[in-house]
Amino acid sequence: MITRSAHEMSEAMASGEITSEALTQQHFDRIAEVDADVHAFLYLDHEGAMAQARAVDKARANGEKVGPLAGVPLALKDVMVQKGIPTTAGSKILEGWRPPYDATVVTKLKDAGIVILGKTNMDEFAMGSSTENSAYGPTHNPWDLSRIPGGSGGGSSASLAAFEAPLAIGTDTGGSIRQPAAVTGTVGVKPTYGGVSRYGLIAFSSSLDQAGPCARTVLDAALLHEVMAGHDPKDATSINAPVPQVVHAARNGNVKGVKIGYVKELNGEGYQAGVRSCFEESLELLASAGAEIVEVSCPNFEYALASYYLIAPSECSSNLARFDAMRYGLRVGDEDGVSAELVMNLTREVGFGREVKRRVILGTYALSSGYYDAYYGSAQKVRTLIIEDFTKAFSKADVLVSPTTPTTAFKIGDKVDDPLAMYLNDIATIPVNMAGIGGMSLPCGLAPEDGLPVGFQIMAPAMQDQRLYSVGAALEAELLTKWGAPLLSQIPALGGAK
Amino acid sequence: MSLSYEDVIAKYEPVLGLEVHVELNTKSKMFCGCATVFGAEPNTQTCPVCLGMPGALPVVNEKAIESAIKIGLALHCTVAPYSRFSRKNYFYPDMPKNFQISQYDEPICVNGYVDVEIDTDEGPKQFRVEIERAHMEEDTGKSLHMGGATGRIHGADYSLLDFNRAGIPLVEIVTKIVPGTGKYAPEVAKAYVAELQTILRSLDVSDVRMEQGSLRCDANVSLRLIGEEKLGTRSETKNVNSLRSVERAVRGEMIRHAELLNAGKRVVQETRHFQEESGLTRSGRSKEQAEDYRYFPEPDLVPVEPDAAWIEKLRATLPEEPTKRRKRLQAEWSVPDKEMAAMINADALDIVEATVKLGADPARARGWWLGEISRIANEKEVVLSDLSIAPTDVAEIVALIEKGELTDKLARQVVEGVINGEGKPAQVIQSRGLKVVSDESALMAAIERAIAAQPDTAEKVRNGNIPAAGALIGAVMKDTKGQADAARVRELLLGHLGQK
Asked: What pLDDT, in 10s, does the model give residues B218-264?
C-alpha cells in the first residue's frame, strides 16, 4: 500500500480497502524500518497523526463528505510551524520550541483531513542544497545512502522516495523543493509567489520563500497544491485571486500545440552528460506528443545566482535577528550578572551553524549604509531584468523548460567546504524565485553514468501554475509508457517496500 | 555660575527641530488584531505577530493608514500616492523582531506646516513650523528595569518586558529645522506641541496624552552665533512628558549649550533625558557616530498606494482647522484676546461652543464654564469634561437666568447640584426649591413687612436718602430666602416709597 500514490491511497480508503488508521500505522512502521538510515524525520507525532486518522475514519464511516486527500499521511518540513509540535527549522537555536500557533498551510492540511506524520529534516533555516547544514545531521538519499537528498527540503523529498510518506510539504526560496525532488526522483512544485500563504513559514528570505507540494506523481502534487493554496488575509503578499485549476490540468495532461521553450542558458556547459541526455530525450518525447519546441534566450539569468546571494542573505540577516534567546528557543550562558547582550551572543555562537552565520554576515554587510546601492540595490535591478527576460520568453512559449539541476545527487561531504560549488546546484532553479513565477520538477530518467535520478524543470508565468501540471502530467504519462513502471520502482536500497 | 537666559539670547540664535511620536487610538495594533487598551495587565494584548514569533507576518491596519493620511492632510502635507514600509534593524530586548517596521525614504506624508501663535513683547505673533514628514511605524514593547537605584538599565538586577505596547501604531511627525524664533524658541516649541495636540484631538486619531506617552516629543536644540549660517551641533532631548517640560527642556538646553560654547568646549551630539524635578537633562546615548539601521524595504508588506479619491474623501471629513476655528469663534463671540487665551488654556472651547450652539449667550456660557464650573473642577482636580455637567445643563441654566427665573446666586446652587449628581437643572431647582419669587404680590407683602419693621429707614428713603434703601432690600431678600430678584425688589421698593 505504501508504494501507491496518494490518490490511489485515497481511493483505497474510499472503497473500504483500508482505513486511514491502518494506512498511517503502515507508514509509521516503514519509518521505524528505514529512517535510521534515511534520517528524513526530526520529529514524529504518532499520537496526533493517529488521532487525526481515526477522526477521518469516523467521518467516513458516518458517511460525511471528506476531502480528496482526507486520511492520507504527509510529512511536514520543519520550517512550518505546527501548534504544540517541536519546530526547529533545522537549527539548534530553536531546539525545544513548541509554537503556540499553526501556520495557515497547516490549518488547511488539518481541515482537509490530511494526517501529519511529523517534521522533516532540512538545511538550517532552509539555507543549503544538501541537508548537510541541518544541526541534527544530514538526511541520506534513498537512491544511495552515501549521497545527499538535495536541500534544503531533503527530508521531505527523501521521505517520499523512501516510501515513508506519500505527500510532503516543502518550501522553495532558491530551489529547495525542486532540487531535492530532482535528485530523489520525486515531484516538487514551487507555486507562484503569493499563491500559498507564508503565514507560519519561518522566514529565510521573505520575498523569495514559497511553500509548495512534494509528491511522487504530478496528480498527487496537484491535489496537495489545491489544498494548500489560496488567499490568506494573514499574509499581505498573498494573491487575492482564484487558485489556478491545477487538479484539472493534472488530470488532463496535454501538450498538443503547446509551445515549449527550452532556455538556452540553462543547459550545456557545467551540466552533467547524463542530465543533458535525459533532459533532451524528454524534450523529444514532448515533441512527439505534439508540443512545439522553441529555443529561448534569457541572457540575464547569468546574474541570477550572484543577485540571489545578495537578496536572500540580506533579508535573512534581518529575519533571523529575532533569535536572540529572549523569548523562545535556546538560551546559553544565562547566569547571574550576565547581560542580555552576552547571553544573546553566546546563544547565537552555539545556536547558529556556519552557513547561517556566513549568510547573516554577508547580508548585514550588503545592507550597510554605503554598500546598499552597490549590493542590495543592484541585485534588485537584476531581479527586474530577470523578470523582463521571462516576460520576453513567455511571449514566445507557453512554458519554459530546463534540467532542474546541473548534476545528479553528489556524495555527502563532497561540497561542504566549497560554498560556491554548493550554490551552483541552484543555478537553474533560482531565476524562478527571483521572478516570483511557478516551477515544477519531475523525474525524467536515470543518468546512465551513475544510475541516479534526473529532474526536468517546467516554468510557467505567474498565476499560470496549471500549465506546469498540464505539461508535467503529459510528460509523466509519456515517460511511464516508455519505462513501463514509475521511476521509483527502480530504487535499489531500503529492502523492497510494498 | 549659571548663565542667564538673557546672556544666551544676546549672543546666540537657537535652532529647533521637533520630532513628535503620536500613538494612534486605533482599536487594534498596526500589524495584528491585538487590542490597544492602555494600562492592561502586562503581556495580555499580544499574539504571535506582535511577539515576533518565527513564521508570523504583519498585515497593515487600514484604519491606521487612514489616521496617518488625516494627520498629513491636517498638517498641510502632501500625501504620497506611493509609500513603503521599511525595516529599521537594531537590537533591543523589548523589540520582538529586533527590527522595527517603519517608513524610511518613502514616507506617507511630506512637506507640511503648522502655524502657531505666541505672545511676544510686541503682542501676539505667528510662527510657521514647517513639517518635513509624517510617517507610520510600530511602537516597541516596554522595559521595566528592576532593582537598581535609578530605574535605568545600568545597575538594574533584572528587567521586565511588557509587549502590550509592541506594535501599537505610531505616526512620527518630524519638523524641518525651525530657525528665527530667537528668544521665543522655548515658547514656540511648546506652542507647536500644544497646537499638534489640538489638531490631533480634533481629528480624534489619538488620545494625545503626554503623561501616558500617547504623545511623545523629542526636542532637538542647537545654537549658533547670531549672524552665523552654519548650524551648531544639536542635542536631542527625550522624556519630555508635558507641555511645560517642552518649554523648560528647550530653555535648559539653550543655556547648557551656551555655557559649553562660552567655555570653548564643544556640544556633544547625543540624546539627553529630561528630568522633571530639576528641569535639567542628563546625557544618554551618543549620536556622534550615525547608527547604521540597514534600512531596506519591508518584504512582508506591499506598498501603500492610497488612491486620490480616498484621500479626497478623507479630506472632506477633516474638521475646521483649529487656528481658523479659534479666529472665527473669537470674532463671533467678540471675546477679548486675553479671555480667548484663557478659554484655550482651559481647553474649554468645545464645551463653550456646544453651549452656545444650544442657544446660550456666548458671554454667559463662557462666564459659567470658566468661572464657577472651572472653580469646582480645580477644587476636584479634574478637567471640565470630567464633571457631570453638560453643555445642555449650562444652556438651560443660562436660559433660566435670562428669563429671570434664576438669579446668579441661585444658579450657582443649581450648578453645584447638577455636579453633585442631583439631577438635571429642573430637578435640582425643584428639589432644592430654588425658584425666584417673581410673584409681585408676594414681594409687595414682604416689602410692606420690611417697612413696618424699619419705619425710620423707610422715612429716610422717602426723604430722598436712596442708599438707605439697602437695608430694606436686604430684609426683603432675607424674608424671601434669597429667592427674589434683588433688582426687581429695589425697583418695587423705591416706587412704593415715592422715589421713582
From this structure: 999 999 999 999 999 999 999 898 999 999 999 999 999 999 999 99
Residue pairs spanning A and B at CB distance below 8 A: 100
Q: Are residues B459 and B383 in the same domain?
A: no
Cross-chain Cβ contact A318/B55 below 8 Å: no
Question: What pLDDT, on a 0 to 100 scale, did the predictor assign at position A494?
Answer: 67
CB contact under 8 A, A236 and B300: yes
Residues B327 and B450 in one domain: no
A497: confidence class by pLDDT, cuts 50, 70, 90: low
Of A94, A207, A368, the CB nearest to B292: A368
* DSSP, res A94: G
Q: Which of B312, B347, B378 is the last residue of a domain?
A: B312
In terms of residue numbers, what domain contains B479?
440-496
In chain A, where the domains are located: 6-301+382-490
* Phi and psi torsions of A41, nearest 5°: -105, 145
Assess contact for B237 and B244: CB atoms under 8 A: no
Using the predicted structure, report yes or no on whether residue A199 has a pLDDT greater than 60. yes
CB atoms within 10 A of CB B455: 9
Same domain, B346 and B446: no
Number of domains present in the structure of chain B: 3
Taking alpha carbons only, the member of B215, B29, B62, B298 closest to residue B138 is: B29
Q: Which amino acid is at A195?
A: G
- Co-location of B338 and B457 in the same domain: no
The catalytic site residues of A sit at: 77, 152, 176
Enumerate the β-bridge partners of residue A445: A454
Answer for the pair A53, A99: CB distance below 8 angstroms, yes or no.
Answer: no
- The structure's pTM equals 0.89
Please name the residues between 91 and 130 in chain B that touch chain A, using a CB distance below 8 Å: 91, 93, 96-99
Which residues from B are below 8 Å from A203, CB to CB?
54-55, 300
Report ipTM (2 d.p.). Answer: 0.95
* Residue A261, pLDDT above cutoff 90: yes
CATH superfamily of A6-301+382-490: Amidase signature (AS) domain (3.90.1300.10)
What CATH number does residue B452 fall under? 1.10.10
